[in-house]
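Fold it.
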Amino acid sequence: MTPWEIKGTELVNCNCAYGCPCQFNALPTHGNCIGLGAFEIKSGHHGDVRLDGLCSIGVFKWPGPIHEGRGEGLVIIDARADDAQRQALLRILSGEDTEPGKTVWNVFASTMERVHDPLFETIELSIDVDARRGRVTAGKLVDMTAEPIRNPVTGDEHRARIDLPDGFEYSIAEMGSGSSRVAGPISFKLEASYAQLAHLHLCQNGIVR
């Protein structure tokens, strides 16, 4: 197993209601799961390969709850990555070189029935975790935004967080309202649904605490 470690930020948007039942081991809001997640590596490596500054997007679709499997997945890799960096990112994002069940990518990989060939695209990404705001684009494939959840009466920004002491993705995530347009092998639209923004610190053994 090649050791790796990354620090960065993520923005995730799925079709569930705010809060996302998956975070509480409950069934998805609409019975199925579709969503995407983007992250930027502030600093990181896979073995001797540096990954600083690179971005990636995962697009996913399940006909039912994630744990029931039959998922479909696609990874979009930063076009700036060289061959060694592309292979390193693909090994991390496919759950390889990871202790079973210890990262979100390893868990998702175990539920996949179909994985499309990876795509390489220019990714533009801006994530402000504390402000609960973000924007991610990848050519004509992805356009994702997040903003704070609003109080339906006053319109004021509402702040909520999820704390998962034993999670396999993040320790604390800020909740937002996300909207996405996704084209390509997996396509869908999301409007004002669950979004999470979080700082990530992961390695082959899971969250670095």
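The two ends are 21 Å apart (CA to CA).
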